[in-house]
Amino acid sequence: MLWALAFAKNLKPGDVVALEGELGAGKTTICKGICKGLGFEGMVNSPSYSIVREYPNNPPIYHLDLYRLKSTNDLYDIGIELFTFSKGITLIEWPQMAGDFPLNITHRVKIKITGENERKIFVENPGGSPFLRRIFISLGTNIEPREQRLAQARLALKTEEPLNWQESGIYETEPWGEPEQAKFLNQAVGFCSKKTPQQLLELCKSIEQKLGRQKSGKWKEREIDLDLLYCENEILESENLTLPHPYIVQREFVLKPLCEIAPDFIDPKSKLSIKEMLVNTSF
Questions:
Q1: Buried b / exposed e across 7-16, counting CB within 10 Å, b at 16+?
Q2: Domains of the chain (ranges, CATH numbers)
Q3: What region does 255 belong to: left with phi over 0, alpha with psi -120 to 50, or beta?
Q4: CB 257 within 8 A of CB 138
Q5: Predicted model pTM
Q6: Less Cβ crowding at N or C end of the chain, within 10 Å?
């Protein structure tokens, strides 16, 4: 439920959220949590019992349950024109029942049963309309020539994403997680981009590969390492990407340079600024 509340605050008018998962996976609970996060805790019916429900919001929220629909023609019988062209947020359970109806799903919430009382939740953002978001990336290297590797990574990122570019100073830091190796040089950069989190991850991996990144064990030495820290206030957990980056609060070598360029940026999970996170953390 806490996850659903945090995710809901990132939704924008026009978003279409598809809830997918096995029976008993908790889609109703997630739906209620999303609506609660949007401020409609007492006005939400279970998605299993409502067809179309308009909530008194401005813009309105429409909740469409496709579970009971036999064909896409049924959509028109329950006011699909109002649903489709609304400027609100749409929550859909069982989106596969919509067939080939041209619905632009911006977020997919996938819930998997992993144990008797355990669920794993993934969020994907496959088709959201692009909008500018503040992006923060951590750079690190401990294989010489370190300064040259950082400069090349910065240049590659800035060439691709020059808008509102920021970069911190360079910090020499002790290795984290695996102490028996050379010291790192670390830096944080920020910019504004319309790329999705997945596209940004692919950009980071592409730059790492071009600059000679070799496969190595976890927390081992790195030719160059680019970690996507924040994509505005996006909260995401997919098979290959978690946002915000899960180790930010544990890493002084991330927080210090990040605080230099974005001290007042608010972490979407903790609701603390980067400065507060740095001050409140003991390393």
A1: bbebbeeebb
A2: 2-124 (3.40.50.300), 133-280 (3.30.70.560)
A3: alpha
A4: yes
A5: 0.60
A6: C
